[in-house]
Amino acid sequence: MTKTLAPPAERPEPSLQDIYGQDRIAPPAHMRAESRVDMGDEDISIERYYSKEWHDLEVEKVWRKTWQVACRLEEIPNVGDHIVYEIVHDSLIVVRESEDSVRAYVNSCLHRGTQLRKSGGCIQKLQCPFHGWTWGLDGKLKNIPGDWDFKHVDKAKFNLPEAKVGLWGGFVFVNFDENCESLESYLEILPDHFSEFELEDRYMGMHVAKVMPCNWKLVFEAFAEAYHVPVAHSQTVPYYGDSNTQYDTYEGVRHVNRMISAMGVPSPSRSNINPEKSREAVERDIPFYATGNPLAEGETLRDRIARTARERISNSTRQDTSNLSDAVAVDLIQYTLFPNFVPYGGVGLSVGYRFRPLGDNPEKSIMEFFYYFPKNPDGSHPEPAKMTWLEEDEDWAKATEMGSTAMIVDQDTDNLRRIQRGLRATKKKGTTLANYQESRIRHFHQTLDAYMRKD
């Protein structure tokens, strides 16, 4: 049985909960709670980051057995709209079959295996580009050219194979396993925690993707802890409470974990930071908070950026934000849904990303960043953003729509390249994790190991 632990007494002060105790407007109840389970302290085996054999097992036991985000509903608003979702060798056509139905078909002609669709768009039928075999949006075979020569084919038995489809928060999820658990069960605590964040009332405002020089799991790990921030992102220490971060794992919860980092407070790794220098630093890196005005007497940086955020969110969404908590307005509220989806809580701009293997290469991966903007009060919104694909040797900073996030990700990308190479060079059989600050990584790998052991 999993043992529940108290937060470590040795962690730097103030704790996140101490900070919340001083906020002018308190956060939601689930953000005022802490949860930590004992997962041991064993090293994580390193072959999982580069072994082709391990990669092949992941395909069978993880990628073909878990729920994964394929797209947003607003990306396929009309009947016939579709995207192509690919993971290693598997490919799905995720299509709006009708106004109220989304389906996911295996992207392969049942005649001789030709890929039916290479990219998204809008169609009224699924037709093979090689010989013209045609299926309807309902997946039923409609036409076989020269059907006189295929008397042995029963059209009623030639429906396109499907993956499972589930919807949550405006996202379309897919699962290749016809015997999988329901999406509702798989999401565990996520819907309850996100109930006030209203992800279904947002639209894709930015989408940027790039090939990363490392295994997909290393991408997850780089963004799952703030322990590396004072060294890797030293420009943020005047305003980012890295060592104040709270890490939550939950008893009996397999797929979800969380971390919350406070904004507007300096890192405990630096002492005696001048508040005005902190204000200048956060306004330099995050123009959303910029006012150009010095802090007033008695005003803290956290007070300032929370008030500025409430005002600007209200102006952009035309909603009353006067009771919006400081934490929801400004903090980094990051969740992971195993295996590869990371949504952030909050209002105004919300962030998300996903990562997945690059084909059969266990030492490269694909990472995608999303920004979700609030829809208009009447539910309308601009066209969802088209994906910007960066070249592998291009910096994330080339995607100017990412703002200051790009600098952070470029810094992490450089380190991820070094980590992947270092794991090949090491004579050590495993990586060693901190018990608290890297607990989300351990939780992730214990869930991964459980899937890898399944028959």
Structure notes:
By secondary structure, the chain is α+β, with helices and mostly antiparallel strands. Helices cover 24% and strands 26% of the residues. It has eleven helices and 22 strands. The strands form five sheets. An eight-stranded mixed β-sheet has the order 15-16-17-18-19-20-14-21, sandwiched between helices. Strands 4-13-12-7-6-5-8 form a seven-stranded antiparallel β-sheet, with no helix packed on it. It has a three-stranded antiparallel β-sheet with strand order 9-10-11, with no helix packed on it. Helix 2 crosses helix 11 (439-453). The longest helix is centred in the C-terminal third of the chain and has 21 residues, at 405-425. The chain is globular and about 85 Å long. The mean pLDDT is 95.
What's the helix and strand layout?
Layout: E1 3-4, H1 16-22, E2 37-38, E3 44-45, H2 52-63, E4 68-72, E5 81-87, E6 90-98, E7 101-106, E8 121-122, E9 126-127, E10 134-135, E11 141-143, E12 162-168, E13 171-175, H3 183-187, H4 190-193, E14 202-212, H5 216-222, H6 229-232, E15 240-248, E16 256-263, H7 275-285, H8 301-317, H9 326-330, E17 332-337, E18 341-345, E19 350-358, E20 361-374, E21 388-389, H10 405-425, E22 430-431, H11 439-453
Parallel strand pairs: 14-21
Antiparallel strand pairs: 1-2, 3-22, 4-13, 5-6, 5-8, 6-7, 7-12, 9-10, 10-11, 12-13, 14-20, 15-16, 16-17, 17-18, 18-19, 19-20
The poorly predicted ranges are none
Number of DSSP strands? 22
Shape descriptor: globular
Distance N to C terminus:
22 Å
Radius of gyration: 24 Å
Question: Could you say which structural class the secondary elements and strand pairing correspond to?
Answer: alpha+beta
Biggest sheet architecture = 8 strands, mixed
Number of helices: 11
The strand order across the widest sheet is 15-16-17-18-19-20-14-21
Mean pLDDT: 95
